[in-house]
Amino acid sequence: MRALSWQQLCGAVLLLLQGQVALSALTVEVNSKDSLANAGKDIIDPMMTFYQQNQTEGIPGKLTDTWYIAGAMFMTMIQYWATSGVDQYNKVVSHDLMFQAGENYDYFSANYSQWLGNDDQMFWGLASITASETGFPEVSGKPSWTSLARAVFNMQVGRWDTTACGGGLRWQIWPYQAGYTMKNSISNGGLFELSARLARFTKNGTYAEWAEKIWDWSASSPLIRPDRWYVADSTSNENGCKDSGNNQWTYNYGTFLSGAAFMYNYTNGDAKWEKRVNGLLDTLLKTFFPAGYGGNVLSEVACEPIMSCDRNQLGFKGYTAMWLAHTAILVPSTAALITPKLQGSAQAIAKQCSGKSENLCGETWGKDTWDGMSGLEVQMAALGGITSNLMLLENKSPQTVDTNPDAAEHHIDNNENSSKDPTKAKPIETADRAGAWILTVMIAVGTMGAVGWLIKTQ
């Protein structure tokens, strides 16, 4: 084989270096706002490309085959903007978040309400209260962000179900949905967190009373086990809420932990909320920061080791990271435990977001190089992980109505949509609506039969 000339050798080295630059990891210095903000920018740009590519027929805020994930994405983007100052996508967030509030400004649009779960609607409520707490600009001529969160709260507490298990929120809303017979942690934990955050922001004691009620019921059910601070995924009405689905997910712990942290702050350090924060935090840190990744990298342990996480599960870590940051800020005694975990996760994200030339992020933060996964959800999770560190650096408590009076709540008349089956509320106009109507009729005719044939996997 003929030896390469000096010029050829230099050219080969240059090409190799260019390839390495294209596939290089992000630069993240966890104590530098500029470094973290720039890393977030590198992550958010391809995420928004995925967002545009996955919009259903160009409908703002509606992604193909899902609805809530865009709400969770806006929640993440608002928190990132608030701590980084990067406002490039604020107009998109503002428009699409308000657009999806629907005709009654309650995130229960007739276009989707026939198949929604309580957890779907809840994430949009959390996005809205995040907007209020961060001072995200209000939309002229529209209800305040707090009012939208309040509308979600009002609808969901109206569905509080005492007909089975003495209380709790069902996973799904309509009897023709298989999840209607279940009560799960993300629906109840999400409503608990929303209630706690509304209580703190508005200083309205009604929200705090509901937060107490939701916690007490959850802790009396198999969903939360205070004896060992274990959070189950779900429980079944059909078995009197005696059983539980025991898969461990970061966001189930995160919602209850965040809500408890907001209640601790709201109550000026009530010891019972401090105990609950510490108990949940201890289990979360032990469960989801595995020793195999050095103990300081967040992992979705139920699916990540075998790369089996679905699109929902791919996003959980990002929300949880931000909720951990909220906890460190609102309950300062926890900061020393939480900070190295979130910093270690950000450093790991920097290595994992090295896909192709676009800083594509993978699923497994604990791997030193991109694992080949790509898509909106993994970008969103990585953005949440970076944002959590910006939150720690800023160390600024979420705002209240005292510091953000523009976000004061007011009543929205949602025409009691929570009690009306949307498949009966309007004429059939599309194939999807026709399918939902047929389901409803079949259930009305066969009320004595089983309704579990319509399967929606969790």
UniProtKB/TrEMBL annotation:
Keyword Chaperone assigned: no
Primary site of residence: membrane
Catalytic activity entry: Random hydrolysis of (1->6)-alpha-D-mannosidic linkages in unbranched (1->6)-mannans
Stated family: Belongs to the glycosyl hydrolase 76 family.
Annotated source species: Aspergillus leporis
Localization terms from the record: Endomembrane system
InterPro entries hit by this protein: 6-hairpin_glycosidase_sf, Glyco_hydro_76, Mannan-1_6-alpha_mannosidase
GO biological process, one term: fungal-type cell wall biogenesis
Broad enzyme group: hydrolase
Positions of the UniProt region annotated as Disordered: 397-426
Feature: compositional bias, Basic and acidic residues: 407-426
Keyword entries, A-Z: Glycoprotein, Glycosidase, Hydrolase, Membrane, Signal, Transmembrane, Transmembrane helix
SUPFAM superfamilies assigned to the protein according to its UniProt record, in alphabetical order: Six-hairpin glycosidases
Signal peptide coordinates: 1-24
Transmembrane helix as UniProt keyword: yes
EC number, as in UniProt: 3.2.1.101
Gene Ontology CC terms: endomembrane system
Pfam families associated with the record: Glyco_hydro_76 (PF03663)
MF GO annotations: mannan endo-1,6-alpha-mannosidase activity
Transmembrane stretches, start-end: 434-455
Family matches, as PANTHER family: MANNAN ENDO-1,6-ALPHA-MANNOSIDASE, MANNAN ENDO-1,6-ALPHA-MANNOSIDASE DCW1
Name of the protein described by the UniProt record: Mannan endo-1,6-alpha-mannosidase
